[in-house]
Amino acid sequence: MDYKTPKEAQDLPGLRLALTAGLPAPWSMAARFMFDIKKIAYIPVLQQGGAANEDLLEWTGHRNAPVAVLDDEPPRTNWADILELAERLEPLPRLVPVDTEERLRMFGLANEICGAGGLTYQARHNMIGNMLNSGVEALQPAARTMAKAYAYSEEAAQQATARMTQILDALTDQLERQKTANSRYFIGNGMTALDLIWASFSNTLQPLPKELNPMNERMRASYQEMGDRVNPAQILFDHRDYIYEKYIALPLDF
Ligand SMILES: N[C@@H](CCC(=O)N[C@@H](CS)C(=O)NCC(=O)O)C(=O)O
Hints:
By secondary structure, the chain is mainly alpha-helical. It has 11 helices and 3 strands; from the N terminus they run αβαβαβαααααααα.
């Protein structure tokens, strides 16, 4: 990825997208997948995971990623707001179902993955706990920044696995039902944002292999460890492999 710094990007016209650089960060990659599938051009902007990101903060009011800024519109950081922006800029392929029941189910399940308190917030409590307790001095500043940003506590980490299991069961049940109904997708008969979101977020539990996902080995082990705690069903990974193969450019580039 050819990133611009926040200072270089902030006065440029068009869509600027701040992304956590150097790893397949789940919210950042999901935002990219939504724009990429619609062929919406954007300028990638550098966000450094766990760092202060002062220039990004000064420009957008946000330290973390993703942050999507279109011209002089307000910066958007929430996954659902970024999805709405992508749908507005380029309606096709449609990522939000027209049918009300399907739409409710899609947003509900997507929020179970991406929302505050959802699957990956829970997994991250464990990751932050591991970093804080690692005894590795170099990891401490980032661990402390993220602990504060994402409401880490020992109690939160303790209940994380149970909550993750509950959410993974809901996603597995949904895919099993869809398989019975002969659909290859999470919702209805076509690809939606949920398929792209799961493709991205699945990497935090079982990263795609090295040749498709050339991420740093320490982060790979840390992501895999979050998955090993909960042992997700194989159907979830078979599904993400299908979505990557059919819709997403590989190897991942971050
Ligand atoms: N704002 C996002 C969540 C963003 C988020 O958690 N970003 C993480 C992972 S992509 C991040 O920036 N981590 C690195 C950091 O905090 O510096 C949402 O609510 O949808």
